[in-house]
Design a protein that fits this description.
Number of strands: 9
Strand order of the largest sheet: 4-3-2-5-6-7
Distance between the termini: 29 Å
Bound molecules: guanosine-5'-monophosphate, magnesium ion
Mean pLDDT: 91
Strand content: 25-35%
Length: 189
């Protein structure tokens, strides 16, 4: 698996520093409040697990599954599957957490839906932010790292379902990006 990596962008030690900084910012902001953290699956599960253990704040965790029908590394249509109970969102301070903010469509849709479900306030926190890629206007309230416009894997982020278990954030060698990408309809022999 490690030999599929072209370049490590963020090391384990750097991840630790970035998450501790954001955990401090969140603690300052939400100190005494009863927060609902809405984790967007699947990609955010590693980040959320590390983040919440650094938050000495009363909180509960809810999940929403975001399925974007991406062809290879390009985003497509988006479906949201909620597992959160109504009383976990309605009337509450919500912090939506995702692995990476790219076009902004996923977080914008989840934030809209949290308000539609009666959230009192909705904040957003991402592990990675790729500001160059934004298709809808979106600025996260909290972000651990800004990265350049490159497709990354590791620390929860996958390519075709793999690499989530890498402990760092990295770019794949081009041959591994291409080999498991879904070919556009009609492009197969
Ligand atoms: P957005 O809706 O902001 O375009 O995309 C957010 C989702 O796209 C993320 O939750 C993630 O699943 C996926 N995504 C965007 N950029 C990357 C990337 O560089 N690597 C991986 N593995 N997933 C990405
Ligand atoms: Mg995702």
């Amino acid at each position: 698996m490690h030999d599929h990596i072209a370049r490590v962008l963020i090391t384990e030690a750097e991840i630790e520093v970035g998450i501790s900084r954001v955990a401090g910012e969140l603690t300052d902001r939400f100190g005494g409040r009863d927060l609902t953290l809405v984790a967007i699956l699947k990609g955010s599960f590693v980040f959320v697990a590390d983040l919440i253990r650094r938050l000495p704040v009363p909180l509960r965790v809810a999940f929403v599954w975001a399925e974007s029908y991406r062809e290879g590394t390009a985003p497509g249509a988006l479906d949201l599957f909620w597992t959160a109970r109504e009383d976990e969102i309605a009337g509450r301070s919500v912090l939506v957490v995702d692995d990476i903010l790219d076009s902004g469509r996923t977080l914008a849709a989840v934030r809209r839906e949290c308000f539609a479900r009666g959230a009192a306030e909705v904040h957003t926190c991402v592990f990675l932010d790729k500001p160059e890629r934004r298709a809808v206007e979106f600025i996260p309230d909290f972000a651990c790292f800004e990265i350049e416009d490159v497709f990354v894997v590791g620390y929860g982020l996958d390519h075709a379902g793999r690499y989530r278990n890498l402990p760092y954030v990295a770019a794949l060698k081009p041959e591994f990006l291409a080999s498991s990408a879904v070919a556009p309809r009609g492009a197969r022999p």
